[in-house]
Amino acid sequence: xxxxxxxxxxxxxxxxxxxxxxxxxxxxxxxxxxxxxxxxxxxxxxxxxxxxxxxxxxxxxxxxxxxxxxxxxxxxxxxxxxxxxxxxxxxxxxxxxxxxxxxxxxxxxxxxxxxxxxxxxxxxxxxxxxxxxxxxxxxxxxxxxxxxxxxxxxxxxxxxxxxxxxxxxxxxxxxxxxxxxxxxxxxxxxxxxxxxxxxxxxxxxxxxxxxxxxxxxxxxxxxxxxxxxxxxxxxxxxxxxxxxxxxxxxxxxxxxxxxxxxxxxxxxxxxxx
Length: 273
Ligand code: NAD
What we know:
The protein has 273 residues and is α/β, with parallel strands linked by helices. Helices cover 40% and strands 15% of the residues.
């Protein structure tokens, strides 16, 4: 399975499984167990998803060694506002039943604290509780501000990114600065017709792959980590099976051209939570 290397040398599988909106503990646990059993080694959760405990239990029950799994969780906005980062990560570690997180992300760029919080994230990194630290939903101006103050460059910026929102400028900026771009909502979050878009469907047919596999492969080929969500075994397998084909330059161009800057989730400039 393809891996990328983050700016501090640690490896991250190019495809992970996301568990947003999987609130039911049994379903969350089963999803993670199934994902691990079919070969996933990268799980993306967050404090606010309310399923860290279920994720932790699934990891324990899976029989897969903790060191083989890349586990991401995120600092929620209230904890960012209060500045209680150590407390927040300790609580996440406890719920997850582990003594370190592979990647700890600032979930959203809260206006009053998206720069100042970074010092505390750096302390978390230095304490060894997170093997890598990063941000999420940061636009280039947020990153500009953060980098002016930062001692440690964020390892990752996790942003909404799929063919109708290609995020060219943020992706380019991140690459220039050594920040690895990561796509949330890579399949259009179940709210988009991107998987039935004729361009995507045609390319999928040519390769004998599914539209989901094509859009995931497109992001990975442009160096973007993906964390598609599914609770179904067949789709989990499908979303992971993207190593056996390659898009042509022309196909990648056609997918890039589908961009219409269409956000399905909240806008980092205007979110109100
Ligand atoms: P996604 O793009 O992964 O879409 C998931 C939906 O796509 C599923 O619910 C299902 O309806 C459909 N699907 C899954 N596999 C499919 C397949 N093979 N064929 C057809 N349809 C398929 O959207 P998402 O869950 O919003 O994003 C993925 C992950 O990103 C989340 O689970 C979460 O971990 C993370 N995330 C992060 C943020 C953030 O602010 N950092 C925000 C949202 C999500």
